[in-house]
Write a sequence for this structure.
């Protein structure tokens, strides 16, 4: 077994185990389908790399001497929009807040960035660098929106533990996504400054950070937030019961409606929460128009 196959087998085992754990929590209603989809695509990609590493579905060899790892780009096209959708939906607090950024323009910029990256990796200089520059510009828009979402999650963290998890969420996302353009520039698709083995290794680290680690941390943060909300509701419910009991003893009216528990927000998939852009708060576009 080659070194690349050993790495793919290890990554497949890690992804398959994570997929099984996510499936268990999905069946219990603790996680949503988006995390399952991302890790499923990772399992399929690693499995294809093991079964047919030299096939055209994995690597496209071009007549101009360039080659692109099509399977990796296809994986990005299938998973990056879902990751961004999950991130933006986390800023809505289950639909009780407007999203920090607009999702559809963010997805368009992300897809344009990937398409420009594929094109840049398949042509020769100087056209390569013009197209790569365009990809970097669209990538900058994606990163600026991502940073806004991560800062919002940090600011909205209810406890120090959730804030700590939010920090790791930001580090894995920015670190994982940040290595891709740098590796592209230094690898065979760009300047050719690093070896092929190092090039592959960096991409492996980036995938582990931006997908496997990030999905797990995001699911854990959502669990902590839901647990905190449940505890707050329970405390408020106990306070309401005590206040009602006190009102009955004193022969006064029951407690005011202001002490009623706040609504928890809509439940559903991330796409339901943010593609409809219907929340209890005005969206950014509505605020600008008003």
């Amino acid at each position: 077994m080659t070194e690349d196959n050993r790495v793919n087998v290890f990554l497949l085992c890690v992804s398959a185990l994570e997929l099984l754990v996510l499936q268990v929590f999905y069946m219990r209603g603790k996680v949503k389908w988006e995390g399952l989809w991302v890790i499923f695509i990772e399992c399929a990609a690693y499995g294809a790399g093991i079964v047919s590493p030299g096939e055209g579905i994995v690597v496209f060899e071009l007549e101009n001497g360039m080659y692109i790892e099509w399977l990796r780009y296809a994986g990005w096209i299938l998973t990056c929009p879902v990751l961004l959708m999950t991130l933006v939906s986390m800023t809505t607090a289950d639909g009780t807040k407007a999203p920090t950024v607009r999702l559809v323009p963010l997805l368009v910029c992300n897809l344009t960035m990937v398409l420009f990256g594929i094109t840049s990796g398949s042509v020769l200089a100087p056209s390569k660098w013009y197209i790569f520059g365009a990809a970097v510009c669209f990538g900058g828009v994606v990163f600026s929106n991502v940073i806004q979402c991560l800062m919002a999650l940090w600011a909205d963290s209810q406890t120090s533990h959730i804030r700590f998890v939010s920090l790791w969420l930001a580090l894995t996302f920015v670190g994982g996504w940040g290595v891709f353009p740098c590796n592209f520039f230094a690898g065979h698709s760009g300047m050719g400054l690093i070896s092929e083995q190092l090039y592959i290794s960096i991409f492996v680290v980036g995938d582990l950070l931006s997908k496997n680690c990030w999905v797990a941390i995001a699911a854990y943060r959502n669990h902590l937030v839901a647990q905190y909300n449940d505890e707050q509701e329970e405390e408020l419910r106990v306070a309401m019961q005590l206040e009602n009991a006190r009102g009955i003893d004193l022969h006064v009216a029951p407690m005011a409606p202001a002490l009623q528990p706040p609504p928890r927000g809509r439940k559903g998939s991330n796409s339901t929460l943010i593609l409809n852009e219907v929340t209890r708060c005005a969206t950014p576009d509505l605020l600008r128009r008003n």
Confidence is low (pLDDT under 50) at residues 255-267, 278-286. The CA atoms of residues 26 and 242 lie 36 Å apart.
